[in-house]
Design brief:
Keywords: Membrane, Transmembrane, Transmembrane helix
Domain FecR protein: 132-224
Largest sheet: 14 strands, mixed
CATH class of the largest domain: Mainly Beta
Domain Protein FecR C-terminal: 269-336
GO molecular function: sigma factor antagonist activity
Number of helices: 7
Structural class: alpha+beta
Shape: globular
Oligomer: single chain
Helix content: 25-40%
Transmembrane segments: 75-94
Strand content: 25-35%
Number of domains: 3
Distance between the termini: 12 Å
Amino acid sequence: MDLEQIKILLERYNQGNCSPEEAAIVDQWFENIDRRQAAQLPEKQVDSELAGIKLAINQQLPPVQPKVRTLKKAYWWYAAAAAVLITAISITWINQSPGPASQAASLQASCAPEKAKPHSETKNGFVTLTMPKGYSEQLALEDGSVVTLNAGSKLTYPEHFGAGERKIVLEEGEAFFEVAPDQSRRFIVQAAGIATTALGTSFNVRAYTRENKVVVSLVSGKVKVDQLDNQASFILKPSEQVSYDRLSLHFVKLGVDNLNDIGAWKQGYLLFKDAPYTEVVTGIENRFNVTVVNQSDKNEWNYNGSFKKNETIKDVMDVICLTKSLSYTIKNDTVYLQNKN
């Protein structure tokens, strides 16, 4: 790992944005550094190294005020410790830094590939809106309801709603719905074998095909979730969600700890909570308009963490791969995951 990767992780640690896995890695670093100093380096030599490193690091890392986590030592010490870590060949992390080819490929990430554009098609009174990777879009329906469509999604809805109901189909992907009240017409979202019915409410539906599940999460109001062609039915209250397994056809009802997590993607966050590999890949591909190819032997793992809108694909991949002991290269619009050497 290079200094830039360590800097990103330490900034997240300092701001309290690390997942438990990432925080454990940072804590282990400091333990290793402390042991190295005690066993191998005279005190004067350590002081001399750190004095020079502090000056160099301070030119790269502006001081950050901690938001959640209280650091055990001064922040410059963490930055200096990271630099010492890079030079400490006795610590195994340093043996895993990418070679020149990997670093050169990573620089290509800043050159965004040409994006496909959102596409809308009207046929026989129905509108189909397709949102490619790298885009999200908000649209207002004729009844006053608002739909925010996430990247990699496809939505079909009528140009004009009928008198009895307002029915739309989420054919693929994820959407957040803010439903205009209308007691005379139910608002129904159909997605992959289930139907979510609301009168006036806001909720999120996630139904990416590759994830083999549909998740309905409620922010406000009340919704009813029905399995099509079956008797299964659930009523959701705010801060509740139901997950439907498209393979086993089973439902699981859960609570949501933080209401703001529902639809956090609308504000540009990448949020993973015990997310399986397929969900992490979906998030990365949709955010950065890339394709992830897994060339490693690790394809069944879960990840906890969050990333802000301004974090680059390199920031995201550095942290995730560090946590999962993977390496990666980026070539054009493709990210290749590999085993660490």
